[in-house]
Amino acid sequence: MRLITYTHNDAPDRLGAQLDDRVVDLAALAGHAGTELPADLLSFIRSGSAALDAARELLSGDPAGWPAGAVHPLADVELRAPLRPGKVVGVGLNYVEHVAESSRTLDTAKELPDRPVLFGKPATAITGPGRPILHNADLTTQLDWECELAVVIGRTAFRVSEADAWDHIFGYSIINDISARDQRRSGQWFFSKGQDSYAPFGPAVVTADAVGDPMALDLSLRVNDVIKQKSNTRHMLFPIARLIADITSGMTLEPGDVIATGSPSGVGAGMVPPEFLQPGDLVEATIEGIGTLSNPVIDAR
Questions:
Q1: How far apart are the first and last CA of the chain?
Q2: For FRET with 263, which of 30, 54, 229, 254 sits at 20 to 30 Å CA-CA?
């Protein structure tokens, strides 16, 4: 199932299921059927498998019987970030070639890490499809991109084994891990990666059953239609199950939390000469089976 958060005619945000070129308001469809479903994705995730099962059953019915107000052409709605996570756990240096380019340009270690490198992004960094990435030249001249598979947690997870990790995943999306390379402070990345708009997220959350093998997805990123990154999730140094086991060894992951699983090589800082985002640029991050997350860069001074 492909789930989006959208607005229609400037109404409050709603949870929808995208069916090809249509958007179905799940709460409205449920109400028409005499039952209830949450109107936002975070509440939907927290409702567990019962909500998923109910939504699937409703969507399996005859569309001719759906109320007109519950169905919109995709072209008539505006997408939002799918949800606002309680926390975003970022993973650094999780693709071997990115480790090499980072050691050349960002003063990180040449050796492969022996356990996941973790950092956090605040919820205020989240922004949605089509929303601007803020370029403040008073703070950075080195604004960079990173296309990453986002894992959306579906069940509370603490001290979860790798074998059980998959049972705690609700679905997958895309995060563009925007970084102000020149705002790393004493080796710490929080301000560099945590400023407002530095976590474009979306365009949808695709439920785990509809993705296939998340460790075999092509991913790429373009700036102004020029390919900068191109790889596959099979090249992760620490696969998804290992990341969940490592994070939950000492930190609780809650429904709706997001893990940004790391960037392949091809970041701007690794180019020769380095390339960085400028106002007027368009950044497009694409992951197989999920879609494309597009965001313009604007001058935010």
A1: 40
A2: 254
Q: Which DSSP state fits 12? A: P
How many whole angstroms separate alpha carbon 245 and alpha carbon 29? 37
Judging by DSSP bridges, how do beta strands 282-287 and 218-223 pair with one another? antiparallel
Distance (Å) of CA 98 to CA 128, 176, 179? 26, 15, 15
Query: Residues near 226 by Cβ (< 8 Å), separated by ≥ 6?
Result: none
- Estimate to the nearest angstrom the gap between the alpha carbon of 217 and the chain centroid: 14
| Each residue's pLDDT tens digit, 106-150 | 666 667 789 999 999 999 999 999 999 999 999 999 999 999 999
Taking a C-beta distance cutoff of 8 angstroms, is the pair 228, 145 a contact?
yes
Per DSSP, what are the bridge partners of residue 44? Answer: none
Q: Which residues of 198-235 are buried (b: 16+ CB within 10 A; e: fewer)?
A: bbbbbbbbbbbeebeebeebebbbbbeeeebbebebeb
Q: Where are the beta strands (DSSP E) in 241-290?
A: 258-260, 282-287
Helices (H) and strands (E) in the chain, counts: 7, 19
pTM over 0.85: yes
CA 231 to chain centre: 17
Six-digit token pair at 53? 């099962």
* Per-residue pLDDT reduced to its tens digit, 40-52: 999 999 999 999 9
Other C-beta atoms closer than 10 Å to the C-beta of 260 total 28
What gap in Å lies between CA 230 and CA 212, rounded to an integer? 20
How far is residue 110's CA from residue 107's CA, in Å, rounded to a whole number? 9
3-state helix, strand, coil in the chain (%, to 5): 25, 35, 40
